[in-house]
Specification:
Elements lengths: L2 H38 L7 H17 L8 E7 L5 E8 L2 H13 L12
Antiparallel strand pairs: 1-2
Helix pairs in contact: 2-3
Length: 119
């Protein structure tokens, strides 16, 4: 092979490689889109209006929840070098109560039924 033949062959291989890279990029995009569609295939459809309604009732439920009730929290106190008492840690312990309140509000938006299973 001559120098010119090698230059031509190198250019052809580089062009082929670039074309394959472009094809690979396109296939990767298509694969990712197909994976996303597969993840979403069994999810129930939700309109923007329905999503807004759900968001609003969650906001209402969290606004109506009594976060000021001190019995919902666990406190860890410490004393600093100046003998001052301070709260070192506050932990919210009523996650389930909050979740139940949100669930009740969201549930009121829907006609919840039980599906009969055909075995």
């Amino acid at each position: 092979m001559t120098r010119e033949d090698l230059i031509t062959k190198t250019a052809e291989l580089e062009n082929t490689l670039k074309a394959n890279e472009t094809a690979q990029t396109q296939l990767t995009k298509e694969l990712n889109e197909a994976k996303k569609q597969l993840e979403n295939i069994n999810k129930p459809k939700l309109t923007t209006e329905q999503a807004d309604l759900i968001y609003n009732v969650i906001a209402i439920a969290t606004e109506n929840f009594d976060f000021s009730n001190t019995d919902l929290y666990e406190y860890d106190f410490s004393v600093d070098y100046n003998s001052r008492l301070y709260v070192e840690n506050i932990q919210f312990n009523e996650h389930n109560s909050l979740a139940e309140e949100i669930y009740r509000e969201v549930e009121q938006l829907f006609n919840v039924t039980t599906e009969e299973k055909n075995d």
